[in-house]
Each structure stands twice: as C-alpha cells, then as structure tokens.
Amino acid sequence: MMLSIQELSYSFEEEKPIFQGLTFDVKRGEFVSVIGASGSGKSTLFKLVTGLLEPDQGDILIEGQRTGKRLGSVGYMPQKDLLLPWRTVLENVLLPLEVTKERKQAKIPEIKEWLARFGLADYENTYPKELSGGMKQRVAFLRTLMTGKELLLLDEPFGALDSLTKRNMHQWLLGLWGELQKTVLFITHDLEEAILLSDRVYVLHNKGIKEMKVTLSRPRSSQLIYQSEFITMRKELEWLINHEN
Ligand SMILES: Nc1ncnc2c1ncn2[C@@H]1O[C@H](COP(=O)(O)OP(=O)(O)OP(=O)(O)O)[C@@H](O)[C@H]1O
Predict the structure, then answer these.
(1) Which of 2-11, 19-28, 137-146 has the lowest average pLDDT?
(2) Is the shortest distance between the CB of 42 and ligand 1 below 6 Å?
(3) Can you give the pLDDT at residue 98?
(4) Which residues span the domain enclosing 7?
(5) Beta-carbon contacts of residue 144 (< 8 Å; ≥ 6 apart)
(6) For residue 100, what pLDDT is reported?
(7) Average pLDDT value over all residues in the chain
(8) Could you tell me if residue 207 is inside a domain?
(9) How confident is the model at residue 102 (pLDDT cuts 50, 70, 90)?
(10) 112 CA distance to ligand 1 centroid (A)?
(11) Residue 179 lies in a domain
(12) What's the confidence (pLDDT) of residue 5?
C-alpha cells in the first residue's frame, strides 16, 4: 500500500474535530481524488499526510512505514504560494534539488528536456508573473515531480483555471500520469474532474469518508463527459456529496 490512513483523528485547538477515526488507503500507481465541501478538511488532510501537522490519534503509513519525516517522502503541490516570484522558471523547478551546486548543474539538461515536454521550452528564464495560469501550474507540477517521490499530493492544482485551460490540463495530466506511473492523491471541488482523472474518488464529510470507484476504461478522452456512463457516475457522486449518512 502506498498510503494508509488508519483511524485518524484531528482537531485544531478548542475546535470541534475535523476527522474522527478516518480510515482509507491508496495503492501504488493509483489516481485517487478527494472531494468535499469547503471546510470539510481536505487541505488539513494533506498537511497531516505531509507531516506539517501531527495527528491527535491514528496512523499515517507511507509504503508501510510510520515515519516522522513524511514531508520528505511525498511530492506536495500546495494550493497557494506555488512559485517564488523572484526566481525564473528554471530556478523554481530546481528548488527541490538544491543540495549541492554540482548536483544542480548536472540536473539542468534533464530539466530542460522536461520543460520542453511541458510546453515550456522557451520560458526557462521567464519569471512567474509573465506566465499564464496553466503554465504556472505546469511549472509547479514539474517542481513537484522533481522531488522524485513516488506519491504526489496535488491540492486543487487546476482550481483557479478557466474551463478551457482546465480541459487541456486534464488531457495533459492524464497522458503524463499514464506514462509516469506515479501514485496521485488529488484534491478537487470539481466532480467532472474527479471522475475523469481518477480510479477512485473519496468524498470527505465531517462525519467520515465515502468511496466511489470509477469504472471508466483508460485511456480517457475529454469527450467521455458526454457519455451516459459518465453522467450516471456524476449523479452518483453528487448524491454522495449531498447525503452525509
Ligand atoms: N490553522 C487553523 N486553525 C484553526 N482552524 C483551522 C485552521 N486551518 C483550517 N482550519 C479549519 O479547519 C476546517 C478545515 O479546513 P481545510 O482548509 O482543511 O478545509 P478544505 O476542505 O480544504 O476547504 P477548501 O475546500 O475551502 O480549501 C475549516 O473549518 C477551517 O476553518
């Protein structure tokens, strides 16, 4: 099991619990989405998995290991503050690799190749403010990938994009994920996005978590959303979101 959350409980000081006995898992190579209303605790869950917060009770295992240094075990793409504005695209992507100058230099050709594959070949010396929303997300995603970690936690990476750009990013991510064979845990508010991208969707409520399996075959195209099987799943997911019990 890539990630195993067992009987997790957490509350912020003096507040009512956000999670009580939360249990779920993610297998190696899976794409799993977490969907839930605003305030249901999605970002808090990621902070617990990365080790930025510690659970009150329960266990978080990464590849079966109970490690205190979880942040070093996952690639985490937070919702905000993605890129450092005073660094160029190349310098931002290099960030997870800043160990020694030599190691950094050695990685530059590989990163340039990646930038080209991400449609960013001509932008390595550009600053984030000059990039479009979709480009910024691709740079941030590449930086997450450069951590070299097997488990990637993506906190609403496409939330701020317009619907056309978002569609393009979905196709891009589907293709890339198929090739990389990484494990992804993905936060979203968007039902269509959750179904299109995922093997399974978890619906997070204050009272717990529910699971929906996505039975659509892969590879998946953006046209799938118009098919009756997709629409049925969308209805099912909507029902799960609106019914806590
Ligand atoms: N540092 C904090 N101290 C106290 N309460 C907090 C803190 N951070 C988050 N919360 C509360 O915890 C709950 C869950 O927040 P969280 O950000 O995890 O929700 P979310 O599902 O990610 O929301 P959104 O979809 O809006 O990003 C909310 O009620 C929030 O107000």
Answers:
(1) 137-146
(2) yes
(3) 66
(4) 3-81+149-242
(5) 75, 76, 77, 96, 152, 154
(6) 62
(7) 90
(8) yes
(9) low
(10) 37
(11) yes
(12) 96
Count of structural domains, the chain: 1
d(CA 151, CA 28): 8
- CA 35 to chain centroid, in Å, comes to 12
Q: Residue 23: helix, strand or coil by DSSP?
A: strand
Helix, strand, coil shares of the chain, percent, nearest 5, are 40, 20, 35
Q: Is the distance from the beta carbon of residue 18 to the nearest atom of ligand 1 less than 6 Å?
A: yes
Tokens of 157: 């990476």
* Ligand 1 pocket mutation pick from 10, 12, 188 by most atoms within 8 angstroms of CB: 12
Distance 126 CA to ligand 1 centre (A): 34
**Which CATH number goes with the domain that contains 54?**
3.40.50.300
pLDDT of 214 > 80? The answer is yes
- Cα–ligand 1 centroid distance for 241 (angstroms): 18
Q: Ligand 1 atom closest to Cα of 44?
A: 18
Is 112 among the domain residues? no
Residue 86 is assigned to a structural domain of this protein: no
pLDDT at 43 over 70: yes
Is any atom of ligand 1 closer than 6 Å to the C-beta of 11?
Answer: no
In the reported structure, the alpha carbon of residue 58 is separated from the centroid of ligand 1 by a whole-number distance in angstroms of 20
Residue nearest to atom 7 of ligand 1 (CA): 12
Residue 75 has which token pair? 């690639």
Is residue 184 within 8 A of residue 145, CB to CB? The reply is: no
Of 67-71, 73-77, 131-135, 147-151, least confident by mean pLDDT is 67-71
